[in-house]
Write a structure and sequence with these properties.
CATH superfamily of the largest domain: Zn-dependent exopeptidases
Strand order of the largest sheet: 26-25-27-30-28-29
Number of domains: 4
CATH class of the largest domain: Alpha Beta
Strand content: 35-45%
Shape: flat
Number of helices: 5
Radius of gyration: 26 Å
CATH topology of the largest domain: Aminopeptidase
Largest sheet: 6 strands, mixed
Distance between the termini: 63 Å
Length: about 450
């Protein structure tokens, strides 16, 4: 601390850096809270910035860092280089080659809507193994290098005039169809559990009429807007109390948003003929957390899931299990099982743990997790039933971007019944009667949800 620091990029030498105020390191984020990981505030962290000038011509130009103290002078090369794209640079267009490729808001950060294969994007930069691309002029996305193919110079930029939006009612779904001249990046957001929006980046609206085509029994309202000059958006409000799952894909250059119609629910037998996928967490070599006497979470998850299967089938549901034995099942294989069965609901059954150094006597209890707004009412209903019927501490409801909460075709909820590392809860979790009671509580929460949102 108290030293002088600077950095250089090519011929731009000794750009000054400032020392930041000492702060505790907060690398560990658990259940939405950041926890200090350093015993004392960390000193000697420096930060600097440089605005690229029009005259700068950097191509794979190295960055060097210099630290000067009373006793020493240290210069190190940064693990990065800088390349500047000139103003007259021919636009770089790429095509997505992996279906539903992961898109992030910054390298390695939060996820955005995955992109279908064939989507065209306008590339504007690269850091490491991720390309940056435009999402209109208001946003940017980041996608892995191996998930796209750079097209030959002169390929048309990713944009399209949008002249129509068509609605089609088929079987148990309503299709929202948007014809384009090429496949463009999209973003789908559930504004609430009963409203959904679609944004098409590079889309320019020429829509003046949207016929409901006898779909008004399901769709209360659909609105088309152009919130920005190169972002086309539609907002759909269904007549139902809530959304029941969606899918999206391209057919040729027509983008299709597929919304599931509300299921027919018998108030006296709400689970009858409903397809429910149960996912017993972990399995095989994936133990999950391990309790004080050595019983792994995977074993308890499977036991509770089997009791839940019996309870649901007894009440008329068609139940799909992602595993019924102690075996390895990949995360995305679990999702595929649920999707292939056209499941209405996906329940992932788990039991919780804490990182080392945390107090399981203070942090414990039942909790539930969701990602899409359509799953929040079911999440609340299951959590309420767990707390009322199991009488464990209410650890809470969490929005969480997990592999088993992100599925959108079914309503997906992840349940953490108790804490494996809390001795009292672990004792209960290893007891067969409590396992049956836990399954019953989840079933009751599911049943109450179906009755409420009929």
């Amino acid at each position: 601390t108290g030293n002088k620091a600077s950095f250089s990029i090519g011929n731009r030498k000794d750009i000054p850096m400032v020392e930041l105020n000492p702060e505790y390191s907060k690398a560990d984020i658990v259940f939405g809270k950041a926890f200090d990981t350093s015993k004392s505030p960390v000193k000697g962290i420096y930060s600097g910035s440089y605005k690229i000038q029009e005259s700068d011509i950097f191509k794979d130009t190295p960055i060097s860092l210099k630290l000067i103290s009373e006793d020493d002078n240290i210069t190190e090369a940064a693990d990065a280089t800088v390349t500047v794209i000139p103003k007259n640079f021919t636009p770089m267009v790429a095509e997505v080659v992996k279906d539903y490729s992961i898109v992030r808001n910054a390298p390695g950060k939060s996820r955005l809507t995955p992109l279908p294969v064939g989507t065209r994007i306008n590339v504007t930069g690269r850091i490491g193994d991720e390309y940056r691309f435009k999402m209109g002029n208001i946003m940017e996305g980041w996608i892995l290098v191996n998930d796209i193919n750079i097209l030959p110079e002169g390929a048309p930029v990713a944009e399209s005039i949008i002249g129509s939006v068509n609605i089609e009612s088929v079987n148990d779904s309503v299709l929202i169809k948007v014809p384009l001249s090429q496949k463009l990046p999209v973003s789908i957001e559930q504004l609430s559990n009963s409203q959904i929006s679609l944004s098409i980046y590079g889309g320019i609206s020429d829509v003046s009429l949207i016929p409901y085509n006898n779909s008004e029994a399901f769709i209360k309202e659909i609105k088309s807007t152009q919130p920005f000059k190169d972002v086309f958006q539609i907002v759909i409000t269904p007549n139902a109390k809530q959304l029941w799952g969606y899918d999206y894909y391209y057919e040729d250059n027509t983008f299709i948003l597929k919304l599931r119609k509300p299921p027919l629910i018998d108030i006296n037998n709400p689970l009858k003929d409903k397809t429910i996928t149960i996912d017993p967490g972990h399995g095989g070599t994936e133990l999950g957390s391990v309790g004080p006497t050595g019983v792994p979470e995977k074993t308890i998850n499977l036991a509770i899931s089997k009791f839940l299967k019996q309870e649901l089938e007894k009440n008329g549901a068609k139940v799909i299990m992602t595993r019924e034995t102690d075996k390895n099942v990949g995360l995305y294989e679990r999702i595929k099982i649920a999707n292939d069965a056209n499941s209405l609901i996906l329940l992932s059954i788990h039991n919780n743990a804490l990182p080392d150094g945390r107090d399981p006597y203070k942090e414990h209890g039942s909790s539930t997790y969701y990602y899409h707004s359509q799953a929040l009412p079911l999440t609340k209903s299951i959590q309420k039933s767990l707390v009322q019927n199991l009488e464990l501490k209410d650890f809470g409801i969490f929005w969480d971007s997990l592999a088993l909460t992100r599925p959108h075709k079914p309503i997906a909820v992840l349940v953490e019944i108790g804490f494996m590392i809390n001795p009292d809860e672990y004792t209960l979790l290893t007891d067969q009667k409590f396992q049956e009671k836990s399954a019953k509580a989840i079933y009751m929460g599911l049943e109450d949800f179906l009755k409420t949102y009929k």
